[in-house]
Specification:
Number of helices: 6
Shape: elongated
Oligomer: single chain
Number of strands: 2
Low-confidence stretches: 128-136, 140-161
Helix content: 55-70%
Radius of gyration: 21 Å
Mean pLDDT: 77
Order of helices and strands: HEEHHHHH
Strand content: under 5%
């Protein structure tokens, strides 16, 4: 748990620095006679990234408090910090490369270093600790269970997060429950 908290803070620092560098770059880069930071789409992307980083910061502070006070919530706090910091750094590096544009893929800028570091830190402690979070008696799984108490697939990309429903119970409908197109038919063409 101690390593997860420390790793989460390293990821948080990297995400924060990636956001700062991206912000500086979009303020200096001009397109159509004005900085690209003035475009609404870029503002929204940076705002979403800032929100994700602040959520990770809050979880990291909670984990640091739990570690410092040797609280019983340390396992949950450490996993929460680790997951949110990993998600924030992944988003920060992807947005960094995207907002840098074509030069984000080159070796002349440090985007690739942040991206590689993000992938390394995301896999550094492995998935064994994260699978414990999604055990049947885990409070985190209880937090994402449905109101009827039935657990459903947690779609966060963590291996082992799927826990089957009890026999005889149907899964809840997906929010996008449109029927799938029939084979041989092209939707919208009326064939």
């Amino acid at each position: 748990d101690r390593a997860a908290v420390l790793m989460a803070f390293e990821q948080l620092g990297s995400a924060t620095r990636a956001l700062e560098m991206t912000r500086e770059f979009v303020m200096d880069r001009y397109a159509f006679g004005r900085p690209i930071a003035s475009f609404q789409a870029v503002k929204h992307r940076l705002a979403d990234l800032w929100c994700e980083i602040e959520l990770a910061r809050s979880n990291c502070y909670w984990a640091a408090w739990a570690l410092d006070t040797d609280d019983s919530e340390l396992e949950l706090a450490a996993c929460s910090a680790r997951i949110s910091a990993t998600k924030a750094l992944d988003l920060a590096t992807v947005e960094m490369i995207q907002l840098y544009g074509g030069v984000g893929y080159t070796w002349e800028y440090d985007c690739h270093l942040f991206y590689r570091r993000s992938r390394l830190l995301g896999a550094a402690l492995g998935e064994a600790g994260l699978e414990q979070v999604f055990a049947r008696d885990s409070p985190l799984l209880a937090a994402v269970s449905t109101p009827s108490g039935r657990s459903q697939r947690v779609d966060d990309g963590v291996r082992g997060a799927h826990r089957p429903l009890p026999p005889g119970e149907a899964p809840l409908p997906h929010r996008d429950s449109r029927p799938l197109p029939q084979p041989g038919r092209v939707p919208g063409l009326g064939r």
